[in-house]
Design brief:
The protein has 6 helices and 4 strands, in the order βββααααααβ. Helix 2 runs antiparallel to helix 5. The chain has one domain. By secondary structure, it is mainly alpha-helical.
Length: 185
Amino acid sequence: MAANGLCDLIVPVKRVNGNHTVMRDVLIDNSVPWQRNHWRTIVSAYSSSPFFEFYSDSVESVFKNNYNSLVELNVDILKLFMKLTKSDTEIGYTDTFIKADRKSRNLVILRDHFSPKKPYPGSNAFPVYFQVFGNKFGFQPDLSFLDLLFSEGPSMREYLGQIPPVSKPPVSDDLPQRNFENARL
């Protein structure tokens, strides 16, 4: 959330095969100074938040690295999130697309449950926390983890534990793959 309301941070990408580009082949268009622009937006939005100074160096490091692919950026952001929340969840990778086995309940397909363009299912159940511009816009649920990190700091993990989990989606063999290249502040 920024001074003028919700703010989307969009990473410019190149899809070598148009909309049929598989996720691992989505490249970042580094001809645009997106990292500098994103970091300036984040500083403007959160520099007065309670935990900005404590976490800003860790977050800024993501914006100082050079990334060629969207997957590289997403993995670094995920690792940073896991480190800051002290999560020990293991990240797994595959070389090929895995279709869900209808008989197996060990594989949960969530790719159609999350989109930056759709609210999190049950987002009305998010507990209210302090937001920098909350007095101007009211509480805004379902923002990026940066909003929660800079506002709640070390209490972030406890806060996340209060959010009801998304219900386990039905297993599907041919769900479309989505590319996520934007986040909302």
